[in-house]
Design a protein that fits this description.
The chain has 569 residues and is an alpha+beta fold. The protein is 55% helix and 11% strand. Strand 7 (350-353) and strand 8 (356-364) form a beta hairpin.
Length: 569
């Protein structure tokens, strides 16, 4: 149904625009996309990366689970201190169901309060993440669905967070609390489940820490790798394309005006070396076995392009504007795919482009025409003197940065002379290259924020577990101190067990993190190699943070007066 509908639309569009667009080598066509993909399709409207959105959702679920685990650990740590209250309730005839209901109600009220307090935080987070989320998603008006989701999530959180602490509360025996002076002697049962929860928390935390480390290294690798051209001290400007902004002005006129300025090193017109702005076509070359056809990118340039961007010529000569009708420059990948054994062998050969014969006059070294996600492919650089094909002007500023301000003022002065009705806007090219990794940078920031929150939650859960342990081992600690144990020995005793748990979580998390990062790195054609030390360094950092977290409560327990802990009720 869709294809027959598009045919007349595209035919009409071709009829209306063909003559005008033919001058500039443009074409117009219509296409369709599913509504489910509308928010994730860049050519349809403002969009976002689907992987980033799924990443935010996944991280949100992980943090919610960690918060529930954290509540369980911290709540169970408080059970001994509520033992007398529970014992009195049972003595006065309170049923277990009633006690359980009261406890669930407490958790539900806490969840409701958290929901209300989270509202200003939601607004703040939405402001921070505004560039990650399509604006159209804020127009979602199904309030009933949103309310049902919030209500269901609140009830689910209450149930997940309450079942285990409620189970422990019902295990408290009246005989254990009749003579209690503090909650430290209530039997809390085994710690196996709470230990498992701590391990689970730190598994997630460690995966995030490793991911943060590796993602940061890959982004650094992408931005600092040699690109095959110069990108420093270069600004770019988009030439006007609207008639009222003097778009009919010959761009070479403005170029020559800038070339005459002493503060400017070089000026060039044409597509940027690394950008998504390019054309696509196919080249046909003759061979002994027939014809070789390859698909390739091509960009329009002028004769100063190679000098400004410092692109290395492997064979042939400098490109000239006179070559615009017959000559082209190819990169080494294109030459090799066309069957030539070397760059010099390709020079002077003719290939067919757009049913016209063109001569290879220059072979250049390979450079990255797209970001590190894509492999270097066949590329043609074609000289042009048509303003419709040369939409960008690049200017190389002086080597000394203190001269840039003066140079930019002169550039702007000349701009206003030739394009008085167009705003003067420029961008530094190295920043434009950095912007090509915008989605990766956004994802990195989300992971960094999530890592901080995850470590915080995990450490709070660890504090709850240490609190339970020190409460249960109060008498043992007092006896050890009476027998001469030092504070350092008691801290080691209390910390050693949990450091083992964290070490176990690191062992579990490492292969998970390796799989996740290996999968993420597969999206890059040029990437770092995963190595053992990329997992060892985050592991050491996690162990140090965990030890510092435990040390406070362990030292506090070790320094307690043994007389108080050994006094019998």
């Amino acid at each position: 149904m869709i294809t027959p509908l598009l045919k007349p639309i595209n035919a009409k569009a071709h009829e209306m625009t063909h003559e005008e667009f033919k001058k500039y080598g443009f074409s117009m066509s219509a296409n369709v996309i599913p509504l489910s993909e509308l928010h994730f399709t860049s050519f349809a409207q403002e969009s976002t990366d689907k992987k980033t959105m799924y990443g935010i959702i996944g991280i949100g679920i992980f943090l919610l689970v960690l918060a529930c685990i954290n509540y369980i650990n911290l709540t169970t740590a408080q059970v001994p201190h509520r033992a007398k209250e529970i014992g009195i309730r049972k003595t006065l005839g309170e049923s277990q169901k009633r006690i359980t209901f009261i406890f669930f109600l407490e958790t539900f009220i806490i969840a409701i309060l958290a929901l209300l307090l989270s509202w200003p935080l939601v607004q703040f987070i939405q402001t921070i993440l505004s560039s990650y989320i399509p604006k159209e998603m804020y127009n979602f008006a199904d309030n009933l669905t949103v309310l049902l989701f919030i209500a269901g999530t609140t009830i689910l959180i209450t149930l997940l967070s309450s079942w285990y602490p409620a189970l422990l509360i019902n295990k408290v025996r009246i005989s254990e609390v009749i003579k209690i002076t503090g909650g430290s002697k209530v039997n809390m049962g085994g710690l196996s489940l709470r230990k498992a929860l701590i391990v689970f928390q730190f598994v997630i935390a460690q995966v995030f820490v490793v991911s943060t480390f590796i993602i940061g290294m890959q982004l650094k690798h992408s931005l600092n790798s040699k690109l095959g051209f110069n990108k420093d001290a270069i600004i770019t400007m988009q030439l006007p394309y609207k008639s009222y902004q003097n778009a009919d002005t010959d761009p070479f006129t403005y170029k020559h005006a800038l070339t005459g300025l002493s503060a400017i090193k070089r000026v060039s017109l044409g597509h940027l070396p690394m950008s998504s702005d390019h054309w696509g076509n196919s080249i046909v070359a003759k061979s002994d076995t027939g014809e070789i056809r390859i698909n390739h990118q091509f960009k329009f340039i002028d004769e100063d392009y190679f000098k400004l961007y410092d692109i290395r010529i492997l064979a042939g000569r400098e490109i000239k504007l006179a070559d615009s009708t017959s000559g082209i420059a190819l990169n080494l990948v294109a030459v090799e795919k066309l069957g030539f054994k070397s760059a010099s062998e390709a020079i002077g050969s003719f290939v067919k482009l757009d049913d016209k014969d063109r001569q290879i006059v220059t072979v250049i070294d390979n450079f990255h025409s797209k970001n590190m996600h894509s492999k270097i492919g066949p590329l043609e650089l074609r000289p042009s003197n048509k303003k419709g094909q040369l939409k960008t002007i690049s200017v190389q500023l002086p080597d000394h940065q203190e001269k840039w301000s003066s140079a930019l003022q002169q550039i702007e002065k000349e701009w206003k002379k030739y394009y008085p009705n167009a705003p003067f806007k420029y961008e530094f090219y190295d920043q434009q290259i950095k912007n090509q990794y915008e989605n990766d940078t956004k994802f990195s920031k989300i992971i960094n924020l999530s890592t901080s929150i995850t470590i915080l939650l995990s450490c709070l859960g660890l504090i709850g577990l240490v609190t339970i342990t020190t409460s249960q081992r109060t008498k043992e600690i007092g006896i050890r101190k009476v027998l001469g144990s030092k504070i350092s020995g008691i801290v080691q005793l209390l910390s050693k067990e949990y450091l083992k748990l964290i070490f176990l979580s690191i062992l579990i998390a490492s292969p998970i993190a390796w799989w996740a990062m290996h999968h993420w790195l597969n999206d890059f054609a040029y990437k770092i190699n995963l190595s053992w030390w990329m997992f060892a360094i985050p592991a050491v950092i996690t162990l140090i943070i965990a030890f510092i977290t435990m040390s406070y409560h362990s030292i506090k327990a070790a320094r307690a007066n043994p007389v108080e802990s050994l006094r019998d009720e």
